[in-house]
């Protein structure tokens, strides 16, 4: 029974890694509850799927990209239009910015961004073709 349970836990951890939600020890960004840290929540046309994923941006740099990137990414996404190293979100003293890598698709509030841009409470962010988020900044709310 113990071996079976360990195997189930191992498979679950691998599945979470593929979704970008776990497996990176202290660097994991997706499975905590913190009301004071800036974060993004997913948006979906299906209300039952909206706000199911939360990605936190603690002080410092958070790299977003695919799991097959040469450099480990803090948040791993998959799908059409997501580059291996897609963008970097930086939180310095509560000021949060997003910096796209070259030739990637990132839209903020309907406009494509190509340079470092400050994120504000309620901003809508689209990464690639399918990942839609709302930025939440508890200090600004």
What do these coordinates show?
This protein has 141 residues and is mainly beta. The chain is 12% helix and 33% strand. The chain contains one helix and eleven strands. It has one helix at 2-18, and strands spanning 39-42, 54-56, 60-65, 75-76, 85-92, 95-100, 106-108, 111-112, 117-118, 124-127, 131-136. The strands form two sheets. A six-stranded antiparallel β-sheet has the order 2-1-11-10-7-8, with no helix packed on it. A hairpin with a 2-residue loop joins strand 7 and strand 8. The longest helix has 17 residues, at 2-18. 23% of the residues are buried. The model is unreliable at 22-32 (pLDDT under 50).
How are the SSEs ordered, and which strands pair?
Layout: H1 2-18, E1 39-42, E2 54-56, E3 60-65, E4 75-76, E5 85-92, E6 95-100, E7 106-108, E8 111-112, E9 117-118, E10 124-127, E11 131-136
Parallel strand pairs: 3-4
Antiparallel strand pairs: 1-2, 1-11, 3-5, 5-6, 6-9, 7-8, 7-10, 10-11
- How many distinct helices? 1
Question: Would you tell me the overall average pLDDT?
Answer: 85
Structural class: mainly beta
Strand content: 25-35%
Number of β-strand runs: 11
Low-confidence parts: 22-32
**SSE sequence, one letter per element:** HEEEEEEEEEEE
Q: Order of strands in the sheet with the most strands?
A: 2-1-11-10-7-8
Q: Which word captures the global form?
A: globular
Q: What's the end-to-end separation, in Å? A: 48 Å
Radius of gyration: 15 Å
Biggest sheet character = 6 strands, antiparallel
């Amino acid at each position: 029974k113990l071996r079976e349970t360990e195997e189930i836990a191992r498979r679950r951890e691998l599945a979470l890694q593929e979704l970008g939600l776990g497996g990176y020890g202290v660097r994991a960004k997706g499975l905590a509850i913190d009301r004071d840290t800036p974060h993004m929540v997913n948006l979906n046309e299906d209300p039952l799927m909206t706000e199911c994923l939360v990605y936190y941006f603690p002080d410092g740099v958070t790299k977003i990209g695919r799991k097959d990137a040469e450099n480990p990414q803090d948040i791993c996404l998959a799908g059409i239009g997501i580059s291996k190293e897609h963008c970097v979100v930086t939180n310095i003293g509560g000021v949060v910015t997003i910096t796209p890598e070259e030739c990637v698709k990132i839209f903020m509030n309907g406009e494509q961004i190509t340079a470092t841009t400050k994120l504000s409470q309620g901003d809508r962010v689209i990464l690639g073709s399918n990942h839609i988020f709302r930025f939440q900044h508890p200090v600004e709310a």
